[in-house]
User: Fold Ig-like domain-containing protein from Anopheles epiroticus.
Amino acid sequence: PPQRPRLEHEGVHVPPSHNVTVDSGAVATVKCVSHYGNPPAQLKWYLGDQEISPIHPQTNSTEPDNPRTWSAASVVQIPANKERHGTVLKCLALHESYSARSVAVEARLDVKYAPTVRMLGAPQIDLEEGKDSLILRCVADANPPASIVWRRAGRSEIASLQESLQLRPVGRRDAGLYTCQAQNSVGTSDTMSVQLDVKYAPKILSAGPDRLTTAPLFSPAAFECVAEGNPTPTYKWVQRISTQGKPFLDRGRESRLVIDNVTYDYQGEYECRATNFINGQERTATSDPIALQVVGAPQVLRTTSGGVAGHSVSVKKGDSATLSLIVCADPRPRHVAWEWGSLRLEAGSGIGRYRVDDVTQDSREDCYLATLHIDNADLQDQRPYYLVVENERGADRHAISLRVEGMFSVVEPLELSYLLGIAGGCLAAFLILICLCIYAVRARKCCFRSKYANSDCNNKHT
Assistant:
């Protein structure tokens, strides 16, 4: 029987179960030799489970030191690539004198190749500052094993030399473009990159210009709000109001709020709200209150507490009517009165069925409630009633109308002067008609007497 076969790579003996090392892209030339067999052994090659062919038929020659025996040799060439790394190469020697009829020798292909990398852990949702953590892995496929380098765009220092890059928790300073690359003795991988965008809730940096702004009546005023956030926040300016059920009034949707014509309606506290959305959830920051103080002449508000323009009050005939208006003034009004027709009632006074209350403080700063009471309302009370207000900076005058619903309440109430005019016209027409009738009667009597007198004279003449 021949000796156990042996493998040789590039003229060097490869011990059993050792590796045949070759670079990817090269060709591995491996020789299988079987000595001192008679007859020579038959050699076969297997790569994995598949039989492969040698580059030429095996050669058999007598041994120089023992011409009665033979040596057998066979050579294969295997193109090396990444996919064949770790594959078993086997040479099988067949001889009838072997106890098992065959003896094999094996070696594993050790294919060296440059690294390729893939990145794991790239975020699929928004990363929020201070809440989320991130672990990025740069997985390299290389032989021999590769070293990993993490870098951050715009910075010279290395971010990490480990396979994993950990950010626990993430912050806005961690945002940027990250790259990973692997390198071994064969070569360097392509660069893999990931862009990290760290979201964070809005924060008000400034709102002003001052915590308190004083503006003269009918002048312009402006507020500025500056906030940071990612995504870029949207702005909303709201005014705190005391209306029941609606504590805030929207005043603007830009970072800068401009009031072209300041009235007392704008007096009060304002808040700037900056809002963005992170993973579908709203994040809002609210500034400290900013106060707007309005100074100037009195102004009777042209809207009711419900926001309806054009004041009008309706009552049934015989009921009591209450007419109220809100006036704002800074300084406080020094004269408040109600006027209608030729009458004028100062605040705190009354006459007959009419009574005016002293002004009372409204829920809004520098605003006051002025009220006129009318007892046992009658149709003749239908008219506009004027509130007249004055301070040292000026005066204002505004009307509220009273409608009294009587038996003809479906018809629009008429002014008393108009009704008196109609009644006077009817009376004058009636008097003229009586005078015409009297004149006609007297004229007829006169004509009758004259005719009778002429007839009598004729009789006497006859």
